[in-house]
Amino acid sequence: MKRFFLFSVLSFFWVASFSQADKTPTRKAQFNVDAKSIGIKGYDPVNYFTKGKPAEGKSALSDTYQGITYYFSSAENLALFKKNPAQYEPQYGGWCAYAMGNDGSKVEVDPETFKILNGKLYLFYNKFFTNTLKSWNKNESSLMKNADNNWSKTFK
């Protein structure tokens, strides 16, 4: 009986480790990253939360979480990220939240156009006289519900 229990516990952890590893290729394929798998165009994901504004990160201060590499503007932000990386990642893989909510499309973002809502980071397209954050704010709850649904279909 003890052997069965030990085997069950070890099997659980073995399967759990593989299920975590399996996310990496999907994340790289579905997230908004460059050719080197850098997220948020090199901006520091933690700075949005700690300073309330975007900041470009430094390649010397980086960490990779499930295949996506993030740069940080300070060692303190890097340390915070390492404690809980999922807390700081942008929603919808770093794609424009408005576009994801509007029609499920993956649209590039301006890392300087963002919103923190319920402890989550949302990024938006802002170029050529089109700031999708303004459109998002007009119908936020419906767009967020749609975006959550669309992203769950995209990111399986």
Mind explaining what this structure looks like?
- The chain has 156 residues and is of the alpha+beta class.
- The protein folds into two domains: 30-85, no CATH class; 90-156, no CATH class.
- Helix content is 47%, strand content 19%.
- The chain is built from eight helices and six strands.
- It has a two-stranded antiparallel sheet. Strands 3-4 form a two-stranded antiparallel sheet.
- A hairpin with a 2-residue loop joins strand 1 (58-65) and strand 2.
- The longest helix is centred in the N-terminal third of the chain and has 20 residues, at 2-21.
- Residues 4-20 have low confidence and may be disordered.
Number of helices: 8
C-alpha-based Rg, rounded: 18 Å
Give, in order, the helices and strands.
Answer: HHHEEHHHEEEEHH
Low confidence ranges: 4-20
Task: List how many beta strands DSSP finds.
Answer: 6
What number is the mean pLDDT?
A: 89
Strand order of the largest sheet: 1-2
Q: How many domain units? A: 2
Q: Strand-residue fraction?
A: 15-25%
Helix/strand class: alpha+beta
Q: Which bin fits the share of residues in helices?
A: 40-55%
Distance between the termini: 37 Å
Shape type: globular
Q: What does the main sheet amount to?
A: 2 strands, antiparallel
Question: Can I get a quick summary?
Answer:
The protein has helices spanning 2-21, 23-30, 47-50, 75-83, 85-88, 97-102, 132-138, 140-154; strands at residues 58-65, 68-72, 110-117, 120-124, 126-127, 130-131. The chain is an alpha+beta fold and 156 residues long.
Name its key features:
156 residues; alpha+beta; two-stranded antiparallel sheet; 19% strand; globular; 2 domains
